[in-house]
Amino acid sequence: MQQIKLNNGVTIPQLGLGTFRAKDNEAYESVLHALKSGYRHIDTASIYGNEEQVGKAIKDSGIPREDIFVTTKLFNSDQGYLKAKKALKRSLQRLDLDYVDLYLIHWPQSYELTADSYQAMEEMYLDGLTRAIGVSNFNFHHLEHLFETAEIIPQVNQVETHVFVQNHKLQEFCMKNGIYLEAYAPVASHEIERVLENETLSEIANKYNKSNPQIAIKYLLERDIIVIPKSVTPKRIEENIDLFDFSLMDEEIEKIDGLNRGRKLFPDPDNIG
Prior knowledge:
Blueprint: E1 3-5, E2 11-13, E3 17-18, H1 24-36, E4 41-43, H2 51-61, E5 69-74, H3 81-95, E6 102-105, H4 111-126, E7 133-136, H5 140-149, E8 156-160, H6 168-176, E9 180-184, H7 192-196, H8 199-208, H9 212-221, E10 226-227, H10 234-241, H11 250-257
Parallel strand pairs: 3-4, 4-5, 5-6, 6-7, 7-8, 8-9, 9-10
Antiparallel strand pairs: 1-2
């Protein structure tokens, strides 16, 4: 599995399993199967309501804790200095872990509230409760305002990124500031049919004997983006990690570049309460 070194020296597996909308036993079984299939990076969030199941699967996998990279997130209603500190401790209790590997602000709120939350996260990072900190769903202006008060540059910005919303300019801005872009919904989530039916992806997939979703994920990996496809289907979980026996040609990457439309499937970060 390809590893990426973040700006604080911590390494993160470039490909992981997302658990958005995975509930109860479904979350447990998908995480356990992913870990048995070679995944070492699991992404969850407090608002997903599945941290306990994720933590149990990690324990039951028998894989040493230090070999698994675990991400969770601070939700909007828990933002603020004191509330953020309490929120991470609750997440750790639900996960049954002493620390997480990455803690993210899930959505930007007001600049002041975000700054207060991030200050708490910096302190929890220094206290060893998380090995890395970052943000999610942040646009340019959210990051620029955070830079005014942050003492530690975020390690990651997790945003909706797929072949139809490619975020080249945001990635360039993040990388200039030492922040890795991380893609959620890498196969277009509830609009996956658009990926499955896309002729450009089908043409490339047929060449490599892969599926369209595999090509969509591979495209992001080759752009040095961290990718967390979500699935609860064992076959798809296995398929999504079977990506390291081929490389895309430059002309194929250019063709996929041409699919960019910029229409998001998820809410605009500026309109989240």
